[in-house]
Each structure stands twice: as C-alpha cells, then as structure tokens.
Amino acid sequence: MGLPRFGRPKGVGGSQLSPNLYVANCGPAVGISYETIALVFGAFGEVSGVHAADESGARVVVSFAEEGSARAAMEALDGRPCQDLGGRSLHIRYSVLRPPTSLGPVNDSVSVSLMASELNIPGLYLLHDFVSCKEEKDLLAAVDERPWKNLSKRRVQHYGYEFCYETRNVDSKQHLGELPSFVSPVLEKISMFPSLGDAANKVLNQLTVNEYPPGVGLSPHIDTHSAFEGLIFSLSLAGPCIMEFRRYVERGWLPKASSSTDMNIENPERNSNFLRRAVYLPPRSMLLLSGEARYAWHHYIPHHKIDMVKDRMIRRGSRRVSFTFRERTEMDVYSVSLLEYLKLCSMDLRLSSQVATFSHCSLISSLLSFCIAVLITASPARTKACGPANLACLYWSRPARATSFLDEPAHDRSRPTIVSRPCWT
C-alpha cells in the first residue's frame, strides 16, 4: 500500500542521471528480500530505501543517497547475472520520483496498523484468529459447494436476504430463509464478542460472502445507514488485505451510489479532504464496525495484489473470502441505529464552516425526525413496503464552487429539499 510514485526520467531511453534505479527481475516474488537487495546494492554506496516498483513483486526501485552510487551500481549490474541475487540477470534503468499533478500533491501512503485500537476510531474492533485453521477450511469448503453469483470483478453469495448493489439495500420481501448451519459456530462466537454488552443478543439475519481474486478490492463506501442495524461483522478468510478507513471532513468529494455492481472511482486519494487510517486484516480475523466506525467512516480495500505493511511486502494470495454478517433494519421500529443514522446524516449535511453551527445540525436533525415520523404514522404499511433506503432524507444541494451559503446568488441559494433516494454519507 502506498507504492512510491516513480517514473522514467526524460532523455533518450531514460538515460538522465538519478539516484533511483528501476531494477527488474528482482524482488520478493522471485525469492529475494528487500534486505538482501539493500545489502547487495549497498556495496556501491549508501542505500536510502528499496521500494516496490509495482504490484508484481518482481520489480523494485533502489534509492541511493547519491547519483554517483546509482551510476556505479548500474554499470556493474545491468544485464549481468548477479550471484548474490540468485544468479538472476538484472535489467536496470534510471528512475525519478513523479512530480505532483495539476490536481495537487497526491498522498497515496498511509501508515498501516496491526491493531484496530491504534487507529483511534470509536466502535472499530479487530480480533485475530477468530476462527481456527480447520474452521476456516470448513467454511471455505461449504461455500465452494454452493453456487456463486458472478459480478464484474468478484463472486458473491447471499443468505437471509439478498443485497441489491443497485439500490445498496435489501428487499425485505425476498426472504431467502435462515442463515446456513455451517456459520452457526461463527454466530456463537460472535455472541461472545468482547465489548458487545446487550448487543450480544441481536439476531444477525443477513450474510454476504464475497470472493476477491488477486488485485480486486472494494471501493470506498458506508453500508446504507437505514438498511442495517448498528453492528457489522466481517470475517476474513483465505488471504490477507489492507482495509482503509476515511472520514470526510467536508463534502467536497464523496463517492456516489452507483447503478453498477462496483463503483468505479479513479484516484480518490487526489482529494485531501478526509482523515485516513489503515489496518491489516490477516486471514481468520474478525472485524467489527459499530458506532462511529460503522456510520461515519467509509471503509475501502485498495485494488492491490501486494500490500506494504510495516516496510514488509505482503502478497494477498490466490483469493480472499469475506463473510459479512448484518442485521436487517425493521423500519416499523424506531431503532437506535435509525436515530444514529439521523444524527450523523444531519451532521454531514452541514454548510461551510462559516455558517455551520450546532443549531443548524439540530434543526436538520429535527426535520429529518419529523419527516420519518410523518411517513410512518401516515402509512406504516406503505412505509415498510417501500424500504428504508427509499425513505425521504434531507439533501442539501448547493453550487460546488460557492465558498459559503451567503456567497451564493439569491436565485441559486439552496434550501432543504425532500428527495426520495438513499442518504449517502
């Protein structure tokens, strides 16, 4: 994760001098560690770092403190077998750090933690070795015996209720039955999950199994507030990955709901308008999203084949399978999760910092609560049938270039508008 952005220097054949060398046919994927690479190239001068050139694991960038050291290494090793590196013939070119683009500096690196507690995100928990190796094998065998549904880049299975990627919701009328018996041991362990308290008695009635091939991740999103209750459990099996969490400070850039099965978001890192945290999810670990982690932070799996964790390159393996357990929201009950949903939606629907005050948030929250109450009171059956994600929510539309509400022309001045669409945060 966070691969340094190197490129070919200007000049014929990329011959411009540089302290950085692009080295092909060398790296962890061919059995050569970063430490060994640094040691071999260190014979020509001080090595300031060894980086993955891409996600193949077989190409690296060796950075020297001085250009002269890089030139000496290139002259000695390029195109020749290196006995200290397994006798492999190295293909070496100069490399330079790419300059910032016109969109501003790109920060594609974030420190990866091994424990959820290091991220300081309220409501986020991670337990390692939640299931045993045998339980992992049995769970994978059970889902592999059942039919998969193919999406554009991955395969899925749904139990309890099918998750609709177009609406990012479940169809309450399409009950698929109880969760399969092979997940009963997992559900029993979940009921004893630390820090749950009274929530341990909740009934998880929706399960989505995702199979991710190498290089396939998950676009930034928050599970629809009104579709599911406040606890979401995700069990990682077969392969590891990095999960990144993002809290958007302003509304300048947000991923929108997509009509396809996968949102296509190019370079979301180009916006620095959010807080970033990342944690390593090893196989057999269980992640719990609750409270602020569930309602206010987008979670995201980078589309990488290799992740960088504490200066170590970790390959994701042939596949990663996740079991995500949720509880479908009953909209005829004014649940705690719905109240949290209203509160956080209203907090995110703020104006600019010049005019956003507590009174604005309170007013919007009150209006949201009133709209929901009117819908439920007027026609409970109709409200329940239309589904929670289609309930009205307040949506503040204002010109993107306006610096504040007060700067907008009178005819463009925004106002709270009731729209029938899922509320995305």
TrEMBL record:
Keyword RNA-binding attributed: yes
Pfam families in the cross-refs: 2OG-FeII_Oxy_2 (PF13532)
Residue stretches making up the RRM domain: 19-97
Keyword RNA-binding assigned: yes
Domain of life: Eukaryota
Keywords annotated in UniProt: RNA-binding
GO biological processes: demethylation
Limits of the Fe2OG dioxygenase domain: 203-329
PROSITE patterns, per the entry: FE2OG_OXY (PS51471), RRM (PS50102)
Example of a GO MF term: RNA binding
UniProt xrefs under InterPro entries: AlkB-like (IPR027450), AlkB-like_sf (IPR037151), ALKBH4 (IPR032857), Nucleotide-bd_a/b_plait_sf (IPR012677), Oxoglu/Fe-dep_dioxygenase_dom (IPR005123), RBD_domain_sf (IPR035979), RRM_dom (IPR000504)
Family according to the record: Belongs to the alkB family.
Protein name: Alkylated DNA repair protein ALKBH8 homolog
Species the sequence originates in: Ziziphus jujuba var. spinosa
UniProt lineage: Eukaryota, Viridiplantae, Streptophyta, Embryophyta, Tracheophyta
